[in-house]
Amino acid sequence: MTRDELQAAMHKLIDLVRERGATLATAESLTGGMVGAVLTEVPGISAIYRGGVIVYATDLKATLAGVPADLLADVGPVHPDTAAALASGVRERLGATYGLATTGVAGPDPQAGVEPGTVYVGVAGPAGVRVRRLSLSGDREAVRRGSVQGVFELAVELVAEEPG
Known about the structure:
By secondary structure, this protein is α/β, with parallel strands linked by helices. The protein is about 45% helix and about 20% strand. The protein has a five-stranded mixed beta sheet, with helices on both faces. The mean pLDDT is about 95. InterPro entries: CinA-like_C (IPR036653), CinA_C (IPR008136).
């Protein structure tokens, strides 16, 4: 994954969202604000980006992003259902058309038995929620950047499939 590939995925997403007159919001765990930071590098992004929450701590996933506490207790923070709930929760709480979410283990050490590079990205929109598991390799930075690209690519797929 190169910076050019990441930028291409982001610009494709931005173009699709603008064409639809829609908006984005982000809920980030392992990426620590990187999704929002990459988006806000683009001049004029305020027309479509509502904002985001960084929910690195598990309890904040519930209190800030609306992930049900019982879900977190049952499956933990690194799980496809958690990614789906993060995306749906931030979409609702920030009043956006689409919610993008990242959760996983950037490394270098496992977290609660989950290996580094295990990431779930989620996107919620008017027609539903989609989650993808990513198995990323490399150092912490590579895993985080791969997560950002992964959530942009998933969002492009979901937005492109929804009626314009």
